[in-house]
Amino acid sequence: MKLSIYDRIGGSAGVQAVVEALYNRLMLDPEMARFFEGVDMVHMKRRQRLFMSQLLGGPALAEMPDMAVAHARAVHVHGLDDAVFDRFIDHLRTGLADLNASPLVTNEIVATLERLRGDVLGKGAHKRAA
Ligand code: HEM
Predict the structure, then answer these.
(1) What is the pTM of this model?
(2) Mean pLDDT, residues 14-35 taken together
């Protein structure tokens, strides 16, 4: 049986390391850090870890947050768009490189998050009438 990425990167602790590496990078970039001003980062990183765990084949969440709803403020008030999303993915790649993740694992994690681009930006299939 093929192991999930979740298992291959070391389960919950592995995802936690990825989330820490990503947000450490985001916080060092003023263009990105501004999106998280006033956000409870402990709560945020916990939610992100649980959410990413499920995405990567780990334990399922009781309830999946709706990405369009979670990011509506970032999109409409702070201008989260494709260019910002690209930069987020760049930081994810750098963070994974910091962790010495293999190119294969890196590409699979990036591809998994890329699939949510439309939802995060509020133009995916789940877009709601505001
Ligand atoms: C595929 C990429 C992304 C994923 C999987 C993701 C995931 C999440 C999750 C799970 C939450 C918590 C939602 C909740 O529990 O209610 C969240 C919140 C948030 N995300 Fe993202 N996110 C992504 C991309 C981005 C990008 C590109 C930005 C902007 C730079 C961003 C900014 C935020 C902010 C500011 C919040 C906090 C919202 C609040 O508390 O008001 N996210 N994200």
Answers:
(1) 0.93
(2) 97
